[in-house]
Amino acid sequence: MSSLASAPAFKPFNLALIQLGGVGPNKSENLKHAREMILNAANGNSGVKPDLIVLPECFNSPYGHAHFPVYAETIGFRHDKPYDVASSPSESVKMLSDAAKETGVWVVGGSIPERDPSDDKFYNTCTVYSPQGKLVAMHRKVHLFDIDIPGKITFKESETLTGGNTTNFFDTDFARVGLGICYDVRFPELSMIAARQGCHVMIYPGAFNLTTGPMHWKLLQQARAVDNQVFFSMCSPARDMSAGYHAWGHSMVVDPYGTVLVEAEEGETILHTHIDPKPLHDARQGIPVTTQRRFDVYPDVSK
Ligand SMILES: O=C(O)CCC(=O)C(=O)O
C-alpha cells in the first residue's frame, strides 16, 4: 500500500518492456541475464533512454507451483518502514537495485517467489526500484492463478502460494503507476481502485499461456485500459517450448482508448514505447465516464 498524497502530474515518459527469454533452472544465470537485459534496455531506442524498465512475471525461476518454494527469497520489505537494500537477504533485490542505480532508471522487477518468515508463507511478489536503487514499492499477487480447462491447462498456484492482501502503486516524477500481477488483470476491481487513487498507468508483469493468451491477453488489457481510461501494460516472458510452462509472450502497451501502442511477438525482445499523456486527458474529456459514475445506484463500490 502506498501513501494517498496527491498524484504527481502526468508527464511524457519512455517505457521499456523486457520480454525476457532463457529463464531456466539456474537462478544465478537467470539473474545475470536479466541484469544484462536491463542494461541493454537502458541503452534505449535510437538514443532515447527509457525512464521505466519492466521485467516479466517470475523472471528468476521456472514458472510452476512446485518451483516457488525452492526459488523463494526473503525480501522483508514493508511499505511503512525504511528498507536497506545493502542488508537485504534477497540476491534478486540486490541485483535489481544495483541495475536501477547503475542505469539511473526506474525498474519494475517483474515478480519473484517470496518467502515471508513472519508467516512462513510464499508469495508471488513484484518489487519496484527508484533510479537511485531504492526499493520503493512491493505488490504481492492478490488473485492466485488457479484454473482448470480440461485437456488444455490446469494450474494451481494456491498449492504453494498465498495471495497478497493489498493494492499497490508507486509515484515517479512522471506518473502514478498501479501494480498487479498476471491473473490480477481478470479482476477489474484492482485496476479500478488504482485508477480512482490517481494512477495514470498500470503495469502488470504476467505470463499467460497458449490457451488463455490468444483468448484474453489483449482483450483484458484493452478492457482495463478503457474501463479506467489509463495506460495498461503487461510484460511477459518470451515463449520457450522446452520449458515446463509455455508463456504467450506478446508483451504490450495499450492506451486509454484501448489502442495497442506496441506488441511483441513471442521471442525475446525489448519493446520501447513513448507514453504521451494526451490520450488519457482527451479520453477523459471526450468520454467523461470517470465523472459520470452513478455511485447512488451502486453504493457498495463507492468507497
Ligand atoms: O489468467 C490467465 O489466463 C493466466 C494467468 C497466469 O498465467 C498467471 O496468473 O500467472
TrEMBL record:
Any one GO cellular component localisation term in the record: mitochondrion
CN hydrolase domain mapped to chain residues: 13-277
Entry-linked Gene3D superfamilies: Carbon-nitrogen hydrolase
CDD domains, alphabetized: nit (cd07572)
Source taxon at top rank: Eukaryota
Keyword NADP recorded: no
Entry keyword Hydrolase: yes
GO molecular function: omega-amidase activity
InterPro entries: C-N_Hydrolase, C-N_Hydrolase_sf, Nit1/2_C-N_Hydrolase, UPF0012_CS
Cited Pfam families: CN_hydrolase (PF00795)
Signal sequence extent: none
Keywords linked to the UniProt accession: Hydrolase
GO biological process, one term: asparagine metabolic process
Family the UniProt entry places it in: Belongs to the carbon-nitrogen hydrolase superfamily. NIT1/NIT2 family.
PANTHER family per UniProt: NITRILASE-RELATED, OMEGA-AMIDASE NIT2
Name listed for the protein in its UniProt record: CN hydrolase domain-containing protein
